[in-house]
Amino acid sequence: MSPLARHVPPPAATPPEVIRNFCIIAHIDHGKSTLADRMLQITGVVSERAMRAQYLDRMDIERERGITIKSQAVRMPWAVRGSGDGESELTSYVLNMIDTPGHVDFTYEVSRSLAACEGAVLLVDAAQGIEAQTLANLYLAMQNDLTIIPVLNKIDLPAAQPEKYAEELAGLIGCEVDEVLQVSGKTGHGVTELLDRIVHELPPPVGQAQAPPRAMIFDSVYDTYRGVVTYVRVVDGHLSPRERITMMSTKATHELLEIGVISPEPLRSDGLGVGEVGYLITGVKDVRQSKVGDTITGSRNMATEALGGYLDPRPMVFSGLYPIDGSDYPTLRDALDKLKLNDAALVYEPETSVALGFGFRVGFLGMLHLEIIRERLERESGLDLIATLPNVEYLVAMEDGTQVVVTNPSEFPSGRIAEVTEPVVRATILTPSEYIGAVMELCQSRRGSLQGMDYLSPERVEMRYTLPLAEIVFDFFDALKSRTRGYASFEYEPDGEQSADLVKVDILLQGDQVDAFSAIVHKEKAYAYGVMMAGKLRELIPRQQYEVPIQAAIGARVIARETIRAIRKDVLAKCYGGDISRKRKLLEKQKEGKKRMKMVGTVEVPQEAFIAALSQDGSADRAKK
């Protein structure tokens, strides 16, 4: 019997016994969205005519890059025969699937999805094997006590080694090799068996139907016309349209204007019961009133205890975003406000720079998050932006007992400093064993300390390091990929703070400090940063009528210097022969003039020089165009 012949519509009131809630977790680019596409086709919720690649990825940027940024929930019908004889009847089930992102920057999306599920499909590319984010997502699923179904994807590729990686995956999870399913999201091979396994192996949701309603918010998005759309997983009780509901953390009450399920387009329903996943619309225009991790209950029949939520995502990387045209500042502010409605992890505050004007100091979860947000701002609002070099949050303790939180080098206090602490991450690196030496050398050069090393197989090794976050946010991943020919994978998570010997390096132009060029670096790397920045500015700043010194200094101590030579007029051009004293007199007169000019003159640094010196790669090129 073909899979398409097995469609049976789910019953109107769905009992918990026939519901299966699961998500797909994997490393980036292992085929989650492609597998989700085949499931949508095979279960019939998307017709062949309406089908397109990456169906659940709604943003243009997701489709272009081939990555998932936001989790997407969808409800699918599926029918299987009973476990008895072949003549037993088909039983209809409801599968609630959440397709999750795979990149380390969007782990908070994965953790929210896992809290709404009873099981997870752990997907591994049959050509690449287990990678760092595979392990990270597996450990997240285990912490949530989820049932895990191991699956090898892309078995149709010529480079696939299903037998080798099935053994590796079975060893990791602790199951038999023949329990690892082999599927192809592209061709649909094995997807029917996977759907059957989800029905048979995943437990149904557990909850009390007669208890006061409790539903967990696992995501919320902003719709221009309808306001905030809240995605929930009902744990206890029942939610109905036109019912008044209360948010347990804020005590705000709203009327349920619409309630329904996503299949994969929104479908209104008569309510949501125990274990169901769906959406609510209350007409609220502020996403902050629909806080992710909050518990929804009935206003009349209120629950006394909230469900366990999630921690708020904490920004890891800070960067300044400035419009190249200063008049675009209000547009940037409105664009960030709008983006905040769909991205709970975005944190920002206004900031002013002498060099770059008005802008915002924005907190991101990582470098990819920064890149995505900046691209969305430029694309959706038509802005040209400068993104300054990313840095992290430091805690500076002064000798008088006060503490200062520093997210920008200009905030670094002067005076007697007792201690500076910086954020640290626990990193997992998976690499072929032949590159162990290169990876160790890279991590040690970034002040890393080895915590342990395990061989997953004779050819692949897992290395665990503790690294300062400041050392990995900018170019660590690129350096790792180039040293391992692209074979290594990298994942990290916060691991507290540590005390470090950090200093602020100031850049002085003719003795005047330029805040925009300051940086907080480790004492051992301060000299290298000073030499690099002074050399870069000497090339970028145009020559003046007088000599301009560029100095890098720590406090009052200069550690590096470059000099921009003066533009000299040839005052001897009109002297043809004659006494040397005449020439000397002219040169002395010129020297006095340059000296006087240097005393009153100020160095004008052009905007292009600031952009080129401060920007990440790409900003400067765009500004020049």
Compact description:
With 625 residues, the protein is of the alpha+beta class. It has 15 helices and 29 strands.
Mean pLDDT comes to: 76
Largest sheet: 8 strands, antiparallel
- Globally, the shape reads elongated
Radius of gyration computed on alpha carbons: 30 Å
Straight-line distance between termini: 60 Å
Beta-strand portion reads: 25-35%
Spatial ordering of strands, largest sheet: 10-9-14-7-8-13-11-12
Number of helices: 15
Q: Tell me roughly what share of residues is in helical segments.
A: 25-40%
pLDDT under 50 segments (min length 5)?
1-12, 616-625
Structural class: alpha+beta
Structure summary, number of beta strands: 29
List keywords for this structure.
disordered C terminus, 6-stranded mixed β-sheet, disordered N terminus, elongated
